[in-house]
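Supplementary notes for students who missed Thursday's class. We covered one full example, reproduced here. Read the sequence, then the structure, then the short commentary at the end.
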Amino acid sequence: MAGLRTVDDPARVHAVVVGVERYPRHPDWDLPGAVDDALRFHKWLRKGGVPEANIQLLLAPDEDSRARLDALTRAGELIWQQAWTRDELMDAFTQDLDDRTGDLLYIYWGSHGVLGQGERRLLLCPDASPKDKRCIDTANLLEYLQHDDLPGFTQQVLLFDACATFLEHHNHPTGPAVADFPTVRRRPVGQFALCAAAAGQVAENDPVARSGVFSHTVLDWLETNAADLHPDLDVLLSHVRTATPGSQTPVSIDIRTLDGSQEHLLWPGSPLPASTGRSQLALALHDVLDGDLRARCLEHLGVHCPSTHLGACPSDEQLAHALLMVERAMAALVEVVHTRNRGAADQLLSLGRTHGVPGLLSPLEYVSLREVLDRAPRLPSTAKVIAAVRAAQPFERAWLPPKSQEAPCVVQLMACVEHFEEHTGGQSMAHPGRQLVPAVVRFTELLAALLPAVRVELHAWADRVARRLGVDDGGLAERRAEALD
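Structure (token representation):
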């Protein structure tokens, strides 16, 4: 990514700076510190030589901030505008910018945000409420700022300090009310956009320090390394990704880079699709995983399910998405949870069955079963396996070794295992809350009966899997006796 071209005259630099601190229609959304961050960005611009008249400072302050703003205004240190509505914020771009011209445009925006359908990053405006989520789409704003009637501003840097949490996470009855900017003819413009959080993440805010974590990190770096208003954007991007705490991951989105190339970058991965199942699972994870247990689960997943790509501190939504999508990830998580909290394990298993998580066995269970079968001196004949399965398993479409082969190989038996994993079994009627023996364990019990040399190991394996799955002890004993018979 190329850096900013030098703008010799600071008077050719303009900015729109937004800080939404107060949401009058829903005070629970108030965001202490959003005004402070906006003022700090304003101060960085002014120290770099940008004239006050070139900066649109649009604020929705709380009472404390309002008192400080009034004092600064009386002292002649800044000019600011109240912005209590979505229309007032949009007018700053659709009307006020038309009267300006320059080489470099900065946009700073601090507010609440959500991730809507189609990977849309939405910025909640001051007049938003849970039932009327008035917002602006960042991608739509980026497109509008490329319109060919806007004089100059071929270099644009946009910084968004806002959450990217999923709409379903908020459990509100209505969707977003997005207002679109006018449709325009577009021209080539260099845009660099940086957002505070990856899809599904919260942009952390420190109410005591009155600052967003992302804004604090960005502004510290700008003040130290870019007093001339021309930051090395590669270095800035690398710095905020490294310095921002692991609970959120700054990302750059949908940009036409300043060297003319295209980039669509989301870190560490693409936004997650909307999912009721993921939302339900995310809420359950939030309830059942305390700090220590969560850390143990993430460490276990990192070792045994590396394809989850979760990193050190994923959000509940990211973790839920991985458990629903990555084979054997849920089983690996429950492998840790059930030793500490049986009730939590049962809750997660139930959600997993409801939403069809792939792979009933954990990676460790799957590998250890194969190792046991590899140690068997001689596998049973195909005829015996087929006869035993057909007698004991109520699944007509089960994959089985061809009859023409005298003895199945381990690969064929593991293919049977993978098929039977799909049949998880129901709840015990005699012992409510306990699971019936799933098909895969019933199958391995048949193998144990046919393989006396590794029977003890297969029984021990089945015991471990049954404990993790919450299988009824009496039911397992009955199935084991039937297999031996």
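Commentary. The longest strand covers residues 152-161. The radius of gyration is 29 Å. If anything here is unclear, bring it to office hours.
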